[in-house]
Design a protein that fits this description.
The protein is α+β, with helices and mostly antiparallel strands. It has 19 helices and 13 strands. α3 (103-143) runs parallel beside α6 (209-235), α5 (158-194) runs antiparallel to α6 and α9 (312-327) packs antiparallel against α13.
């Protein structure tokens, strides 16, 4: 392809280079360019005809020299910005600054907190699983005390016994490692299938060597740490002590198991509360009205080749034909054009001023600038709050604009904004004022969870690149082929891109919240299940250790209900302590989730109360079976037990 020409926008372009297939430009989710480019053209800037000094347009990528830090680069750019402010009064008035940001940090900034929170959740589940394993190893060590004591009496050294027990723990961890890899593989495939749109670097997620080494190290470390204490205890038992304490648990063992169980349930409650907050947040997001009705709305992007449509009249004529034929499609209720579709990245920023202070500090207030056709708001289902929308008589040269409710409330709080004049250009420029003819509800064009910037809408003119919205009463996907047929019939050289229902963009915008919900709920359910298994195991073992005691109590007249309630009360006390600790820890940790939540506070009392109730109910259910088993102890059999 080098040296050959391809036709772009109706013009022949010379191919001078080819990038590697692996090249990818990572950008933050709010960037104007939401998908990677396939074609790169040289930036051509006419320095003889420059825009005003305060017209900010470009984003600069720079590579630091070796051994130069970002702090040094920032200091250099701060000095340069100060020099520019001194040389240009308009930059001094606007307090122009230059910020140096690491690209990696900029790309992952929205996802970092969610990933860290999920990593903490993974750690909690690991600790809960380790607590369960520690329970089992402690119980197993107690049952093998006589065996270890006999081995020691026959000449086995303490180090030899420790190596044997730690080796058993490592074998157990190896089995968990293999099973974990299988589950991780399934989970990775599920994540890639979900493809949350705003999760950066999704394509590079894989089970590589670093992930395998981390998993192997974590498995070995947990096996050694959580298997060492039971191993040391079992290896240090003497034969005489084993014979004296055969079949009974020491006070230290009982306390250790109780502490492990309390820690396990506390961590499970923290995860349950985190999952509950995610569930409530996602449900609240589902109820958000984004400023438009995504149901029955088809969107696509198109472009008129400038070489074929070099003048504004030619482009306007073609745009009118496209609108008329799309409107004539069966099922098409309304058609609208816009310079930038919602939830498809940032468009150009439009500075504005509404008083002397903001006019003097030009660009201190910025909005999202959009140009829209008369039918756009009707097609989007966006409510008109005051005034009117554009009609066929409005032109870009008349200086008429529509603003959203957030800008109206900021510029003229409590007053009617219709008929007001808004400054849309710096002092001294031509046509720097525009008349507000209407106010519409705010469209959440960047983030479903919050309004990002006010919005200013101008009349859609002879744009060469544009987005189109088509309102239909049926399934918008059914119109896709008809839309392509209409555009192709008018001009096969007009490219049509990303024909998608608007609901797909909304679903993509909720992708990270949905991922947080699924993963946190999965970990919360796993923690609850592990805790229930642990509780059942601990109390079953405790009841088996107290068989003789329970038999004596029942032989002396204690009834079965009293025995069962006694076991349940022990479980209830542990639940109460665990709940208090878990609520306290969750109150501290959930503050870090505030940026991931919508419509619910990190210390939401409903979530805390309901999750605590679920944990207590599950814990008592785990205690009930061992408690009921205790009531069936035969006193004669218990007294005969050696």
């Amino acid at each position: 392809m080098i040296g050959k020409t391809i036709r772009l926008d109706g013009q022949d372009q010379l191919v001078v280079g080819i990038l590697p297939r692996a090249f990818h430009l990572w950008l933050p989710s709010e960037a104007f360019l939401i998908t990677d480019s396939q074609i790169w053209k040289p930036l051509q800037f006419n320095y003889a005809n420059q825009p005003p000094r305060n017209f900010t347009l470009f984003t600069v990528f720079g590579r630091l020299k070796p051994r130069v830090t970002y702090a040094q680069a920032q200091a250099e750019m701060t000095q340069l910005a100060g020099q520019l402010r001194k040389e240009n009064p308009v930059l001094e008035d606007g307090d122009m600054r230059v910020r140096v940001v690491p690209l990696e940090e900029d790309v992952v900034k929205h996802a970092r907190r969610a990933i860290v929170s999920l990593f903490v959740a993974v750690g909690f589940v690991l600790l809960i699983a380790c607590a369960n394993v520690a329970h089992l190893l402690l119980a197993r060590a107690s049952s093998r005390e006589r065996e270890m004591a006999v081995r020691g009496a026959l000449g086995a050294s303490r180090g030899r016994l420790l190596r044997q027990l730690v080796t058993e723990s490592l074998v157990l961890a190896a089995g968990g490692f293999v099973a974990g890899l299988a589950i991780a593989r399934i989970g990775t495939n599920v994540l890639l299938a979900m493809r949350p749109a705003n999760l950066p670097k999704l394509d590079v997620i894989q089970m590589d060597s670093s992930a395998l080494l981390f998993a192997a190290a974590a498995s070995a470390l947990t096996a050694i740490v959580f298997g060492l204490v039971p191993a040391i205890r079992a290896a240090s038992i003497t034969l005489s002590r084993a014979l004296r304490t055969a079949g009974s648990a020491s006070v230290a063992q009982v306390r250790a198991r109780s502490l492990l169980m309390i820690a396990e349930m506390s961590m499970a409650l923290v995860l349950l509360i985190g999952a509950g907050l995610m569930v409530r947040s996602f449900l609240a997001l589902q109820q958000v009205h984004p400023g438009f009705d995504a149901n029955g709305l088809l969107t696509f992007r198109a472009a008129l080749p400038l070489a074929k449509y070099p003048t504004a009249p030619l482009r306007l004529a073609r745009l009118r034909e496209i609108e008329e034929q799309l409107r004539a499609l069966p099922g098409a209720a309304e058609v609208g054009f816009t310079s930038q579709l919602p939830l498809t990245g940032s468009g150009p920023l439009s500075p504005y001023a509404y008083n002397e202070t903001t006019a003097r500090n030009w660009e201190s207030e910025t909005s999202d600038g959009r140009s829209v056709s008369p039918g756009y708001f009707r097609a989007m289902g966006t409510r008109l709050l005051a005034g009117r929308v554009f009609d066929s008589h409005d032109t870009p040269q008349q200086g008429r604009i529509i603003i959203d409710e957030t800008l109206a409330a900021k510029a003229w709080p409590g007053e009617n904004a219709v008929g007001r004049r808004l400054q849309v250009g710096p002092n001294g420029s031509q046509n720097n004022f525009a008349e507000v003819i209407g106010v519409v509800e705010h469209i959440r064009a960047h983030d479903i969870s919050r309004p990002v910037r006010p919005q200013i809408y101008s009349v859609f003119g002879a744009n060469s690149r544009f987005g189109v919205v088509v309102r239909t009463a049926g399934d918008p996907a059914d119109l896709a082929r008809q839309v392509e047929s209409v555009i192709g019939g008018l001009d096969p050289e007009i490219p049509v891109d990303r024909i998608r229902p608007m609901g797909d963009y909304v679903a993509d915008a909720l992708g990270q919240s949905r991922l947080n919900l699924i993963v946190m709920t999965f970990f919360g359910a796993a923690a609850l299940l592990l805790s229930c298994v642990g509780i059942y195991g601990v109390f079953s073992y405790a009841v088996s250790q107290r068989t003789r005691e329970i038999g004596i109590r029942m032989a002396l007249g204690q009834d079965a209900v009293s025995v069962r309630n006694q076991v349940l009360m022990q479980g209830l006390r542990m639940c109460a302590i665990s709940t208090a600790i878990g609520v306290f820890v969750a109150a501290l940790l959930t503050r870090s989730l505030s940026s991931l939540l919508y419509g619910v506070k990190p210390a939401d009392p409903i979530t805390f109360t309901s999750m605590a109730a679920i944990l207590i109910a599950v814990a008592l259910a785990g205690c009930y079976v061992p408690a009921r088993r205790a009531t069936h102890v035969d006193p004669l059999v218990a007294l005969k037990t050696d």
